[in-house]
Design goal:
six-stranded antiparallel beta sheet; about 120 residues; alpha+beta
């Protein structure tokens, strides 16, 4: 098992279930997504570039996007407080995951994957 998988499977519930579900959805939706262990968290790369990350912190799991400055859909569902360039979808319970919204955001993030990190 690699360190990114260990991170996910070592998380306590309900965060483990959230992380596993997000992992499955990301890998199903994003062509060529490669999960690495960077910055002490699972970080997905696409075509060698940072794409998104999973981070369990406090009472939630963040699914953060590297090129969030270019995202335009579902911004009302994203957290950006205290951040200059990153945005994330935040989940406290597995039931909070809306697969349709997540798939839409992942598709948009994939479409801007070659743009610079900042606008």
């Amino acid at each position: 098992m690699n360190p990114a998988e260990t991170y996910i499977l070592s998380a306590r519930e309900p965060y483990r279930s959230i992380l596993v579900q997000l992992q499955v959805l990301i890998e199903a939706e994003v062509p060529g997504a490669e999960m690495r262990f960077k910055y002490r968290i699972p970080f997905y790369y696409v075509e060698g570039r940072p794409f998104c990350y999973l981070n369990q912190s406090g009472d939630y799991v963040d699914l953060g996007f590297a090129r969030a400055a270019h995202l335009t859909r579902h911004l009302d569902k994203m957290e950006s407080k205290g951040r200059k360039f990153m945005r994330s979808l935040r989940y406290r319970r597995e039931e909070d995951i809306d697969a349709d919204i997540l798939a839409d955001v992942l598709r948009e993030a994939y479409s801007v994957r070659l743009k610079p990190l900042r606008k």
